[in-house]
Each structure stands twice: as structure tokens, then as C-alpha cells.
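Researcher: Re-running this chain for the archive, since the previous output was lost when a drive failed. Same request as before.
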Amino acid sequence: VTLQAAPATVQRGQSVTLTWSSSNATTLNLAPGVGNVAPQGSSSVSPADSVTYTITATGPGGTADASTRVTVTPPPPPPPVVPQPTMDELFTRMVKDAMFDYDKADIRPDARDALSQTAQFLRSYPQVRVSIEGHCDERGSTEYNLALGDRRAQAAKDFLVSLGVTADRMDTISYGKERPACTDHNEACWQQNRRGHFVRK
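Model: Regenerated C-alpha cells:
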């Protein structure tokens, strides 16, 4: 009697084909788990662990055995679950403020780059709506800065519309000099306050 397993090594859950043949045998028993079988044939098995299959043939001349070893390897671990960033995290990472020069509402080159990235995010997530806040530094009157902040917010909005973001997803509001990001009295601080700032709605 002969017995073969193909393939001889499988991952847990996969199947193996056992094939045997015999001559001059009246009964054949394939263990473990298969039982009595025909003089020749094949059977599909799915062992949970590594195992040796043995076929015992009995006939007029006595008994004969044949064995084959099947090695079962554990399946590979599932790929690690990478947590998906929340919409707030994406917004914070991708949406950039537009900075402005003193007493101006023109979109300068660095603001163009920032707004282009913001537009890319907003086009990718059409469900997101934003409020564009216009801010100014502390110089000038409250009334003047409210008007300047409004122009800055509107300029940022118009630029985003030109990049394919629909206007109805963006509101504008001016805070003038009332909500500074920085309160020092120097140019580095004032620059931080001359901005079009985005807030997710």
C-alpha cells in the first residue's frame, strides 16, 4: 500500500489531498478521521494541526502500513489595523490659513499655496462646510479692521471658488482685530494675526 499527501505543508484551514493505492488488499483503513476506504482513491482533508496519516491494508497475506506527514502552519497574522484619522484630524492637518500683508487683502504666493491645499481637501470631502474668518493685527481702528477682515475672508473664499469649491459651502465673517492669535506687539506676532482662518462647521 502507498499513501501520499499533496501538498505536504498547508496553512491552517487549507485542504490536503490524500492519495493511496494498494494491491491484494481486502480492507483499507485510513486514520485519523477518514475510516475505511476503497483499494485505491483519494480524499480531501483539512487538518487543524500537523498530523501523520496512516493507511493500513489488510489482505490474505497479512497487513501493511504506509504513512505520510502533513505539516500545518498557522495562518499569517492579520495586517495591523491602522486607525483612520477622524475628520477633525484631517481638517487640522490639511486645511491651512491664508496669511496677508499689512493693510492688504491680496492673495500672496504663500497664501495661494495654502489655499490650494485647502481646496484639495474640500474637493475631496464635499460634505465639509467651513466658515472663513477674517482677522487683522492690532493697528488701525476697530471699524477699519472689521472691513479689512471681511475683504480678507472674501478674498480667500473667491480664490477657493476659482479652484472648484462651491460657494455655498463657505461662509465668511470678520473679527477684525478682536480675536488675535498672538498678543505680542511686534511684526512676527502681527503677521500671525493677519489671516484668513478656517473653522469647520
